[in-house]
Amino acid sequence: MSDLFKLFARKRMMRSVCCAGILIFLDVFSLSAQPAVQDTLVINLRRAEKMFLDSNLLLLAQKYNIDAQKALVLQARLYPNPNLSVGRGPLIPLHNPTADFGTNFDNTASLSQLILLAGKRNKAVKLAEANTTLAEYQFFDLLRTLKYTLRTDFFNIYYLQQSAKVYKSEIAALKQVADAFVAQKGKGYVAEKDVVRIQAQLYSFESEYNDLLNQINSVEAELRLVLQVKPSKYLVPQPDTVSLQKLDPLAHPFRALLDSAFKNRTDLQMAKANTEINKRNYTYQKALAVPDLTVSLSYDHQGSYVTDFNALGLSMDLPTFNRNQGNIKMAKIMIDNTLALEQSTLAAVEDNIAVAFEKTFAETKLSRQIDPKYLVDFDRLMHEVMKSYMSKEISILDFLDFYDAYKQNMLQCNNIRYGQVQAFEDLNYYTATNFFN
Fold first, then answer.
1. Residue ranges of the chain with pLDDT lower than 50?
2. Backbone angles phi, psi at 43, to 5 degrees
3. CB distance 212 to 162 below 8 Å
4. pTM over 0.85
5. Average of per-residue pLDDT values in the chain
6. What burial letters (b/e) apply to 150-167, b meaning 16+ CB within 10 Å?
7. Residue 15: its pLDDT value, please?
8. CA 99 centroid distance within chain
């Protein structure tokens, strides 16, 4: 009778542990879905992009660079200032050297103007305008790059946080089971080896969870920098999951994607702008080889052979030694250099689009293989396995194996879904157009 009573008490205790573990497991799942309130910024993609455009300091700095280049265009349009010189000095007549020094004075004046020849001014203006265009393309390329960083970080954080919820739920539930088993180990209701295995699994999950949190913090720091958000804020992205499920690589033909890239890729436009700058610089350097003309008017009151002497003068450097040969040769070489870089960029654009387009098909196919019902069934099976183990229908190894499989399944699903979103964001970035928004 005493053995029968002990067996009954043991089964009763196991049922109590089972019920407690299952209830805690269910409570943790419901609580883990609730985001923290303190220092948490829940943000959607539209709001994030607006914050980025309004406050990013790198964009602001690049805007100042455009204004600086426009100021150089204004400077290039200005004409050289005229030069005015005047002089006054004592005059000693040659026919009367003993005359009183300082009684007679000679007044002189000269007005000169530099005249730029060979269209130097217009060529300088065109060169400055080309540099302004390049600065504008640099601004839009920076905008494209930072926006890509923003969007990829936004979705990356979202799916990493979804994975963190899985870890948090399993760790909390497994910790409660481990604590209950430790309490019952000394009473002989639970084998010590089972306690050790559960604790080992728990420590493994906690280590993986800590690594995941560090990864989230790293991506969060980058996104906060792009959005200019205080470090105390914890960002919780809220994407439009319905739109993400509708992503379709066949929504736009490959030719349209390629044409958009050729038209809108700012790095390609920058390569073309650099070629244009070097062409204009070559023309400008050739113009500099032509000497400029200086026209002058001079007046001398008493210092010449007649009183009130007036003269018109012309002066010009003789292009004997320096004809700007080195700068002209350098400018011509730079044209060939930028033409080669332009062709390289063009080839890279075509390759980027082709690879990114194929990737969207592969990632979409993989993502569509995930059955939403399977995830729900897996969640239900996890609870059933907990019950089965508590009632000793399965071994500790089967229990832990299924526990780890559940975690791996959820993490893999999040990685696959992020991989699909990342593929479409790559295509948006390479085409410089939000075809898939």
1. 1-38
2. -145, 140
3. no
4. no
5. 85
6. bbbbbbbbbbbbbbbbbb
7. 45
8. 83
What is the token pair recorded at 86? Answer: 């005047």
Residue 376 has a pLDDT of: 63
Q: Which of 78, 60, 76, 62 shows the shortest CA–CA distance to 134?
A: 62
Which H or E run contains 276? Answer: helix 266-288
Long-range contacts of 276-279 (CB under 8 A, 24+ apart): 276/130, 276/133, 277/127, 277/130, 277/131, 277/134, 277/338, 278/331, 278/334, 278/335, 278/337, 278/338, 279/335
Residue where the block lists tokens 């089967």: 398
Strands (E), 260-417: 293-300, 309-316
Residue 248 and residue 364 in contact, taking contact as beta carbons nearer than 8 Å: yes
Q: Which two tokens stand for residue 160?
A: 């990493």
Token pair in block for residue 342:
């332009």
Neighbours of 94 (CB within 10 A): 5
**Which residues are CB-neighbours of 66 under 8 A, at least 6 positions away?**
132, 135, 136, 139
Which tens digits make up the pLDDT trace of 349-366? 999 999 999 999 999 999
Burial of 425 (0-12, 13-18, 19+ CB in 10 A): buried
Contacts of 246 (CB under 8 A, 6+ apart): none
Q: Supply the DSSP string of 260-273, one letter for each residue.
A: HHHHH-HHHHHHHH
